[in-house]
Every structure is written in structure tokens, then in C-alpha cells.
Amino acid sequence: VRGRINIGLPSDPEEYSSANEVENKGLWIQHSFAQEWNTYKEECRPCEKSKSWWDSECSSQEKSLRNARRDLRLRKHRAKLTQRTLTNLLRNASPSDNLTQQIETLERTMAEHRTAIERDREAVIVAAKRLKGATKRAKREHFDHILTETHQSRIWDNVHWTRPRKQQASVALTNAEGEIVTEPNAVGQLFQEQFTPTSARGVDMTVVENMQQTPERTFPAISALEIAEALLNTSNLSAPGPDQVSWFW
Length: 249
Known about the structure:
This protein has 249 residues and is mostly helical. Helix content is 56%, strand content 2%.
């Protein structure tokens, strides 16, 4: 870029004849830099795995999961083709054809495919669990490293990581059968049955009679000194209460 700019620009700034020429040279420099940048830059391809904590173990486990899913898809496709071949053979066979051996072979192949499909499904589940464990370990190591490298004066900037997940602000209403109620009329009826029922359940007051009664406790007499101490910190300008006793002494 430097060589191209040196060739296209005059050595003496006074050689520019007008402001338009200076502007044109500036645009030419901008175009030269952009062209060189587009020629030698590396393409960045962000994807869902473009995380700062993603490491080689996560990539390896993700590749294993992708291969396990591919094997499962291929096995299902082969089983589908075998089943289609067996169906066509049974459909087009005549009573005089001796297809017992072919049918047994296809049925045995289908049984092998079913066993392999179950095995591949288990492999997919295991690979998914390993990927989940790898991502959890990678996140833990990454954020532990950040906490270790963070200065003590900035450690509180990372507290938001420990915040709990935001809960829903509302809860769905359900009736006695467990069904979610959303209609306004049904919601009103549900509230009425809950808080103001038309047929309230009776209360058996005999339980009060069976309760053990404790003896009445005596209350010590209140002295004038205790009243004076209680009123010591009150305002003398407060209005009297229902007993018409003023605070003014």
C-alpha cells in the first residue's frame, strides 16, 4: 500500500492546484487501503459455537456428536430402504414364487438395522451428555480464569454472573380440574368461587369446646411513673385521641 501511495502522490504538498484535487487524492488513498484490506483480510465466519469459552475439547465432543447423528440418519435410511424392498417383494410376489430365503434374509437385515438404530441412539445420547459436560467444564475454567485475572477493585463487575434466572411475572390460573383458565368470564367465576363462594363450607364450632382452656393471666398494675416515662418523648402539641386525653402536661 505504501508503494502505491508514494507513486500516486506528489512529493511536495504545494503541487496540489485545488481543494478538489486534494479531496480526490484522499478518496484514492481510501480506495487503495480498502482494496488492499479486502485482498489480504481473513474471512470471519461466526457461528453458534463462536464463544469465548469454547475450547478444543468442546470441538472434539461436538464433532463426535455430529458423527453419531450422521450414523443414526444413515442407519435409518438403510432400514427404510430395506423395509421398502421387503414390502415390494411381498406385494409383487406370486404363489408360485419361492421367495422364502429372500424374505428371511430381508427380515434378518431389518432386525439388524433395528438393533443398530437403538445402539446409534444410545451413542447420540452419550455424545450429547459428553458435549454438555465439556461445555460446562470449559465455561467454569474460562470464568474462573477471568475471576483470577480480574483486579480486586473490579471484581464486583462480575457479580451479575451469579444472579438467578429471572422468573415469570405472572402465573397461569387453573380450575379444580387443573385446566388453565384464560377467558374473562371463566376467570371471574374462578375468583368468585375462590373468595366469595355462594355455598360456603360450614364450620364446626364444637372444636372450640374441646380445646383446652388456659387460666386467665393477671396483669400488673400500671404506675403513674411508667405513664410519665412513656409520655416523656412525645410532643406536647399533638392533638388528643379518641379518649380526649391531651399530651400537654
